[in-house]
Structures are given as structure tokens and as C-alpha cells.
Amino acid sequence: MSNFEIFTGIFGGLGLFLYGMKLMGDGLENVAGEGLKGILEKITSNRLMGVFVGTIVTAIIQSSSATTVMVVSFVNAGLMSLTQATGVILGSNIGTTITAQMVSFKLEVVAPIFIGVGAILMMAAKKKKTKELAVISVGFGILFMGMGMMSSSMEPISELQSFKNFILVVGTNPLLGVFVGVVMTAVLQSSSATTAILVALATAGTIDMKVAFPMVLGCNIGTCVTAIIASLTANRTAKKAALIHLLFKIFGTILFLPFVSQVVKIVAHMTPDNLGRQVANAHTIFNIVITVVMLPVSTYVVKLVDRMLPEKDDEIEIQGAIYLDKNLLETPVVASAQVVKETIRMAKKAKENFELAMNTFFNDKEENIEKIYENENTINILEKDITEYLVELSEQNLPEENAKLVSQIYHTINDLERIGDHSENIAELALEKCNKKIEMSEDAIDEVKEMFETTLRALDLAIENYENHESINENIAEEMEEKIDELEVKFRENNIKRLSSKMCLADSGVMFFDLLSNIERIGDHANNIATIKAGKKHKAYA
Fold first, then answer.
1. Distance (Å, rounded) from C-alpha 109 to C-alpha 120?
2. Lower CB density within 10 Å: C or N end of the chain?
């Protein structure tokens, strides 16, 4: 076999392995569906539960790097504390060993069967769940075909003099082996890929465990690079989470380096005739042991990181979205859940502005105006941030329900932005009322209060429905909108009578009409939000 054939076999095999792992991870993630959305956020401060959750999630998405990036993103958004993060990070290290264990089995012979069965199911299946299972099957088969290609292509490498010299040096210098493992994983952005290469080399008899194990240690450090990159644009607490991940791996490597020979003997005793399994077992032993050792002292690691990255009093608060992180786009199910959270935050800002604007109108509280303008600016920024994120999310391989959700959110944020605009209009009317000292009759004020309270209930219902992922009875929303419309018509007629009988001045009468119009429009947009999950056709309002 020529050098070119060796290179193309290894390169192509690695490509198949990575693609198969991605397919399988996406399929598992989509099958997990709604269950995966909140699993990382619902854990308690119990670190043991965090380890369990981290292990399960990583086993599903087939990437400890992706899990750690999610953890960094959740810490950045304030959804997870550093204490919770430590358990999940340690659990993700155990979860990633499952991939290594799988690839250590010589399943390339049956790989075509999985691809064939999966392909047939993908073409014949009608149910979405069956199609996702077919994707998992195809991904599983492609992964092992890639392993087979790498293993067969690596057999002749042992005859190359340059490779023999490299093995000789690494075999006598474990630190160099660690460094090589770090570089390989940093380049490939996957500890599973590095471990797979080591398994393939060991299976081909090209390297032994004395060479492989230091590289295994290095690949565990190298996998931290992805989370560190993700934390560079995040807040200080998220940077701490990424640093904790790195420190766990460094401490573990320092702990294991003096005992390389002992670990080699242990795994050799476990599977004496299978070097590939020895590499996978060494990887598993390392991650289980550092989890057991580091979990009890993780509180002290957090304190150490707090000293290394102290909080700064003069740090500028980040404007705009807090739940959206582009690193989460790799896991669309989780990214979709984050968009919903950001939309709910936008909705609560819009509701707050509505209440502030009406409070300003009723009580002449001009001091609210600055806060209203600040909230309106935030609402506009959020609309832009969420829209840009949705565009990128829609380019991912989204499950059907998530693709539908993206469409719903587009409409919802537009309605929320319009609610913000109408609230700002009300605030400007309130400011005009104060500046021009316009007086309204008690009857007019009572009517505005009734209109406001009815519309506020409709908006509360809409936000509650959206937040709880439920479809309310469409009739309830329609009844509330009709009630608001009826009140507007009734109160307009009453105002015309007041103007005709000169019970109110023209300025206050015109302002009353404008006020009713803005409140009624807020009710329309609230109805859109309340009924969108029920499949009601979205109405366009000014």
C-alpha cells in the first residue's frame, strides 16, 4: 500500500467516523426530543445528579464538547450555577467514554447491515420516530465503516521508519505523548475522534498501551479547547465553568502520569488479547477515577477558579439577548428551547411597558418615561437578536415540531414588538397629558381603567399560554378579544356623547380616542400570541 493510499484511507475513514457519529447523535437527540430540552436546567444543586445528567446527555448527543458548551452557555445565561456545572462537566467526561467503548468492538463487518436496514427504513417509513431510528442505524453503520477503513489503513504505518522513530520517542517520554494527544484533539475538536484513531492504531498493532495511554490523557485535555473557545465571548462566570473543565482534566492527568505502567497492566489484564479494548478501557478508567476524586473537592476547585478569575465591579452589563448562544445551534432542540425563553423575556418586557405606560397616564408619573424608553430599546434589540438567531437555527437539521416552532416565534416577536410600540404611544400620550395639563372626567378614566384591565388579562393569558407550551381553548381568546372590541365601541360612543354635551374638552376627547385605539391594538396582538399554538391563522395588525 502506497503512502497516498494510507493517507486517503485514514482521512476518508476519519471523515466517515465523524459523519456517522454526527448522524447518530442527531438521531438520538431528535428521538429524545422534548425530554432533552430541559434536562440540563432541571437538575438540582446535587452534584451527583449533575454527574448522572451529564453522562446521559453526552451519551445522547455523542459529544462531551457539545455538552460542555451547553453548560457554558447555561452558566452564561444564569440558568445554571458553577456548583451545578461541576457535576455536569464531570458526568460529560464519563458519557464520552461510551463512544470509545463502542468503537473498540470490531463491528465493521456488520456495519453494512445497519446502513442497509437504516436506508430501507428511511425510504419506506412514514412515522417521524421511525425515520429518526433509521438515521441512528445509518449513522451507527457509517461510524464503524470509518473505523474499519482507519484500522486497515493504519496497519502498514508500523513499517515506516519515521513512525518507528516517533513511537520510540513517545514511548520514552510520556509528556510528549500527552502533548500529541492535546494537539490532535484540539485540531479535530473531538476527543472521541482522537480516541477512535488510537483504538484503530492499537487494533492494527501499530502502537502499544505505553504509547497510547499518555495520548489518551492528552486528548482529555484537548477536548477542553471547544468549551474555552465558546467561553471567550461569554461572561466571567461562563469563563469560570470552562476553566473548571480544564482544571479537572489537568489535575487528572497529573494524578495519572506517575501510574502509567500500573494502568497499562490493569487494562492488559482485563482484555489481554485486544489492544483496542485496552485503549477504550484506559479512557473509561481515567474519566471515572477523576470524577470520583474530583467530585468531593469540586467546591474547592470553584473557590480556586473564583480567585483566578475574580469578579470586576466595573464590568458592563451585556445588552440584548441573554439566553441565545450560537454554540447551542449544534444541538437545535436545546437552541429552540432557548429561543422560547428569550421570547418569554421579551414578552414580559412588553407587558411591563404596557403597565408602566398606563401607570404614567393614570398617576402622572413622568419618572416612568425613561424606564419605558429603556425597555422599548431592549424590546427592539431582542427582536433583532431573536430574528438573527432564528435565521441561523432554521438552517440546521430541525425536527418537524421545531421547524414549526421557529415559524411561530417569528410571528410572536413581531406581535410583541408592536405591543411595545403601542405602549410607547401610550407613554407619549401620558407625557402630553402632563405637559398640557389635560384633564379627563372620572367616567372617562374609569372606562380607560376597565379597558386596560381587560386587555392586561388577555396579555397575561397569552404569555402564560406561551410560557407553558400549551394551546388554550381558542374560544376563550376570541371571547376576550371580542370583549375588548365591544368595550372600545361602547366607550367611543360614550366619549362622543361627552364631547357633544360639552362634558369634556376637545383635547381630552381626542386623547381618549387615541388611548382606546392603542389599548385595543395591544389586545389584538395579545390574541395573536394566545392562539398561535392552536394553529389559528395569524392576523396582521398595525
1. 19
2. C
Lowest mean pLDDT among 189-203, 297-311, 510-524: 189-203
Residue labelled with grid coordinates 388554550: 472
* pLDDT of 317 above 50: no
State the Cα–Cα distance between residues 13 and 146, nearest whole angstrom.
4
Amino acid code (one letter) for 228: I
Distance CA 524, CA 522 (A): 5
Report the distance separating Cα 40 and Cα 210, nearest Å.
37
One-letter amino acid identity for 37?
A: K
Please name the residues in contact with 189: beta carbons below 8 A apart, sequence gap of 6 or more: 65, 225, 226
Helix-, strand-, coil-residue percentages of the chain, each rounded to 5? 80, 0, 20
pLDDT tens, position by position, 182-195: 988 888 777 778 88
Q: What is the pLDDT of residue 172?
A: 77
- pLDDT single digits (tens) 45-91: 577 888 888 888 887 776 777 778 778 777 776 667 788 888 888 88
> Which cell goes with 415?
406581535
Spatial separation of the C-alpha atoms in residues 291 and 283, rounded to whole Å: 13
Contacts of 227 (CB under 8 A, 6+ apart): 65, 68, 69, 71, 72, 241, 242, 245, 246
Q: Greatest CA span in the chain, whole angstroms?
A: 106
| Cell reading at 251 | 489535575
Amino acid code (one letter) for 111: A
